[in-house]
Structures are given as C-alpha cells and as structure tokens.
Design brief:
- It is a single chain.
- By secondary structure, this protein is α/β, with parallel strands linked by helices.
- The chain has a single domain (7-166), classed as Uracil-DNA Glycosylase, subunit E (3-Layer(aba) Sandwich), CATH 3.40.470.10.
- Helix content is 30%, strand content 20%.
- The chain contains 6 helices and 7 strands; from the N terminus they run ββαααβββαβαβα.
- It has helices at residues 33-38, 49-56, 65-74, 105-108, 121-135, 154-161; strands at 7-11, 24-28, 77-81, 83-89, 97-101, 115-119, 140-142.
- The protein has a 4-stranded parallel β-sheet. It has a 3-stranded antiparallel β-sheet with strand order 1-4-5, with helices on one face.
- Helix 2 packs across helix 6.
- The longest helix is centred in the last third of the chain and has 15 residues, at 121-135.
- The radius of gyration is 15 Å and the shape is globular.
Length: 171
Amino acid sequence: MPMPNERTTVCHPIAPVFDANSRILILGSFPSVRSREQGFFYGHPQNRFWRVTAAVFHAQTPLTVAEKRAFLLQNGIALWDVIAQCEIVGSSDSSIRNAIPNDLSVILDAALIGAIFVNGGTAAKYYDRYQLPRTHRNAVRLPSTSPANAAWSMERLTAAWQIINKNGTEV
C-alpha cells in the first residue's frame, strides 16, 4: 500500500461507459483514489460531476453505480478518461507524470460521437497533447467539477455545462 504522498504508477481500472447510442463523450483526466476504490467515475462525494450533469438533463442525481451508468446511457453520454496509466501522488492531477493515453478509438469507432468535452484543465492539457493528434477532433474544455475548483459554484458550473445538452451535435 503506497504512502499518501508517494508517487506510484497506476493503471486505469475503470472501463469506459458507452454504447452505440452515445453522442457525447466526456473525458476526465484520471480517476481519483476514491473512484479507483469504488470502481467507477467521480466517486468522491464532493465532486460535483453527477449533480451538475443531472441538473443539465433535468434528472435526479444518480447515487449508485448502476444508476450512474443508466443515467449516462439514457442521455447519450459516453464517459472515460484521457489517461490510461500514469505516475501519480494520490488523486493530485498536478502530480501526474509519464502519462500513457487511453485508446479512444474504442468509443469513437463504436458510437457516432458528435462532440467531445473535457472536464477541467488537466484533462484538456492531456487531451490536446495525446488525443488530438490521434482523433483530429477538438474537445470543448469545461470547468472542472472537482471540489478543488471551489471558485465555481454549482450554479456557474451547471450554466457552463449546459452546452453538453445539445444531444451530441457539433459545437
């Protein structure tokens, strides 16, 4: 078990969520320790991802992994992360080193993704570095739903994230 401030190499343990009806792709950077422990995306209770996306789609906030997966698929959302493996200290995006990207063709070849969004600056940075040269598709950077992004209230986040509710049409 690594110490809290120890840099460790971690492989992404969570499979992407998508199906042939997915039209929107949302990418984070890399799962937090809490998400890795739970085996699903945005597992930290203070992360506002599920509350924001539920508000955008006028839905109840999903609580269980099954509810979260169903919510994504019902709303045409594919969800994954830019990075497949990296050295990281805990959940700190700023500590990421030696990143290896995920192969987004798994999703892009299976679904008619109309728009790609990235959740925050780190996801945007790694998307532009590793994914853009492969996909040749720009991603729209959204403000991070992380609790570390305290400058953004729920209201501001929800307003900014409304762009994803265009049913995957190009933005």
